[in-house]
């Protein structure tokens, strides 16, 4: 049994309509997703806007109801809301996408970071201050920061406050939902590298959500590509970047800019080739509703959504 196991997860949202405001259909935000995350590793969930990444993360932590499927964490079934014990609520934390809106602007850093601690532990004011300052040190912010308000920090600093808050209870798993997408590119690498550093120090496991395959390549051990609530492909970093099988994945991989200027022409041509293949073979890869097929395994680690044989 793995560290985090997600089995055939579905999260469907009702669509209300008509004069009686009845349920007239469902948005299948997540529609049958399975994966497992190993302890200490980073599992990347990639996909375009609306593909169901955030909904998956929120369902695991309990912010969205699960329509069907199973989630286990450290061998315990945590699918139902009421099964999310105190331990689970300590062990699993989330970092949110937007460091500008995810921190309460009217609270000082001390209170922002101490809030989760106060929910679980009874510390004296002195102990609490010391703990928050230790956390600030881990995220490379000065101890004086405790008296400041979020608006006094840059985006990158704010996201580090978010990280300090997320690690305040010594969690085991962090669901990081686009943790750097609201930041300048120059700051992104800093925050990402820092997330890697604390991963080793604190033995953290990450479920890392991003729409940016370049970032996922930098951060993740295993990767899944999501499209309209389903998996298109899943594999190790090597599988996805060196042997992408699904045309949708190939197109994403081809779009990552090459740092080497000497390879630009080559990449340009490759991209054109992949685009041609995409247009030519789209119907072979998606069903008549434009959805991905079920996954087939092509190696121990590598799964691809392909039409069934026969
Ligand atoms: N609470 C909700 N009620 C109804 N529909 C929802 C709700 N939350 C999400 N959705 C829908 O579910 C789908 C998946 O949304 P989700 O936020 O998971 O996508 P995402 O992959 O995180 O996208 P982005 O990259 O834009 O953050 C979208 O169609 C979205 O509109
Ligand atoms: Mg999202």
Low-confidence regions: none
Q: Kindly state the mean pLDDT as a whole number?
A: 93
CATH third-tier fold name: Rossmann fold
Structural class: alpha/beta
What is the CATH class designation? Alpha Beta
DSSP strand tally = 12
Q: Identify the CATH homologous superfamily.
A: P-loop containing nucleotide triphosphate hydrolases
What overall form do the CA principal axes indicate? globular
Number of helices: 10
Helices and strands, in N-to-C order?
Answer: EEEHEEHEHHHEHEHEEHHHEE
List the strand order in the largest sheet. 6-7-8-3-9-10-12-11
**How many domains?**
1
Distance between the termini: 33 Å
The bound ligands are: adenosine-5'-triphosphate, magnesium ion
Helix content: 25-40%
Gyration radius over CA: 21 Å
Main pleated sheet: 8 strands, mixed
The CATH architecture classification is: 3-Layer(aba) Sandwich
Measured by DSSP, the beta-strand proportion falls in 25-35%
Could you provide a short overview of the structure?
By secondary structure, the chain is α/β, with parallel strands linked by helices. It has helices at residues 53-61, 86-91, 109-120, 125-138, 155-167, 185-202, 213-219, 237-242, 247-255, 264-285; strands spanning 4-17, 22-37, 42-47, 68-73, 76-77, 92-95, 173-177, 205-210, 222-227, 230-236, 295-297, 303-305.
Describe the protein in words:
The chain is an alpha/beta fold. The protein has one domain (4-228): Rossmann fold, CATH 3.40.50. It is 37% helix and 25% strand. It has 10 helices and 12 strands. The protein has an 8-stranded mixed sheet with strand order 6-7-8-3-9-10-12-11, with helices on both faces. Helix 3 (109-120) packs across helix 4. The mean pLDDT is 93. Adenosine-5'-triphosphate (ATP) binds at residues 13, 27, 29, 47, 49-55, 211.
